Amino acid sequence: MPAVQDGLPTGHARPVVRVVHVTNPPPTPRILAGRLSGWTVAPRLSFSIARVPVSVIIRLMSGGAVIVMKQNRYLRRFRQARADAASRACTLEELSLRDSWLFRRMAARGVFVQVEGDRWYIDAVAAESFLRRRARIMLTLAAVGVLIIIIVMVLLAR
Fold first, then answer.
1. Pick from 70, 90, 68, 69: which is nearest to 79 by CA?
2. Total Cβ atoms within 10 A of residue 69
3. By C-alpha distance, which of 52, 55, 82, 80 is closest to 66?
4. Could you give the CA distance from residue 104 to residue 93 in angstroms, rounded to a whole number?
């Protein structure tokens, strides 16, 4: 039987307990070139946007941004297929797209026109009008947001 000292067999490393006194508060995050630097989430874990999967980023985006991305995908696929006339109409399956509420909403605005059953084509004039209207709405919302921020800053400065 091996010799035992302090509850451990002799010749084994003893556990070391280190007491650390924190006198300085943890460092605050620094923003360098638009990226967080020195941000510690937990001991030995650091945050890096490069490590976040794209699917997580998309889930964290606002609903409006996701809708715009999907609308752009519909427009891009129809333009790439050159389905801009009734004679070149395509089905959604040919373009690897779904018949979603978003597509139906764009079709109700005249962006996509249905011909002979399940075939669709893009109306270029209506698509440009749709994009201008969307840009005008986004600009208006951004202006309202900036105005609200200015009002809050003025009120807090009093």
1. 90
2. 11
3. 55
4. 15
Q: Give per-residue burial for 75-85: e unless 16+ CB within 10 Å, then b.
A: bebbeeeebee
Nearest to 91 by CA among 54, 123, 119: 119
Question: pLDDT 10s digit of each residue in the chain, 158 long?
Answer: 556 555 555 665 555 555 555 555 555 555 544 444 444 444 444 444 456 666 666 666 677 788 889 999 999 999 999 999 999 999 999 999 999 999 999 999 999 999 988 999 999 999 999 999 999 998 998 899 899 999 999 998 88
- Could you give the CA distance from residue 131 to residue 139 in angstroms, rounded to a whole number? 12
